[in-house]
Design goal:
Blueprint: E1 2-5, E2 8-12, H1 18-24, H2 37-48, E3 56-58, E4 67-72, E5 76-84, E6 90-99, E7 102-107, E8 118-125, E9 132-138
Antiparallel strand pairs: 1-2, 3-4, 4-7, 5-6, 5-8, 8-9
Length: 139
């Protein structure tokens, strides 16, 4: 078994990558590669689970607010996040300026907006290439 991103193997569950083995062993080289293999592999998968410009949202379902996370492959001058209801009406928007490349994570600020329970779509505008959209559920 292995973790693949864009068709390339980045983590194998057969052997722990050395950097993660050292981290799991207090920063020292691991003497026994099989020790901590499961924990190190889980950590490696989490580190590589974000794909470039792929939007994720959590928790979903959410009760109060939702956090967005995305791996940006380049700096972005301005991002606009728009939340739509099931009828396609924009019910919330928020802009973010000068977003640096790397992992971008931001709580949207939906608490106190009086959103009814149901399905919502969150769209991120301003990314190079295709814009991202994700479905979330409010309970």
């Amino acid at each position: 078994n292995s973790l693949q991103i864009q068709g390339k193997q980045v983590v194998s569950t057969e052997e722990t990558p050395p950097i993660y083995a050292r981290k799991m062993n207090g920063g020292k080289d691991a003497k026994d590669k099989s020790s901590n293999n499961t924990a190190a592999t889980a950590e490696a998968k989490e580190a590589f689970s974000l794909q470039s410009d792929k939007l994720t949202a959590f928790p979903s379902p959410f009760t109060d607010d939702v956090t967005l996370r995305m791996l940006l492959k380049e700096n972005v001058n301005k991002l606009d996040v728009v939340v739509f209801d099931m009828n396609g009406r924009a019910i919330f928007s928020r802009g973010f300026g000068s977003v640096a490349k790397g992992v971008w994570q931001q709580k949207l600020g939906l608490s106190g907006k009086g959103l009814a329970n149901g399905v919502y779509y969150i769209k991120v505008l301003g990314l190079p290439g295709e814009n991202n959209q994700i479905k979330v559920i409010k309970q």
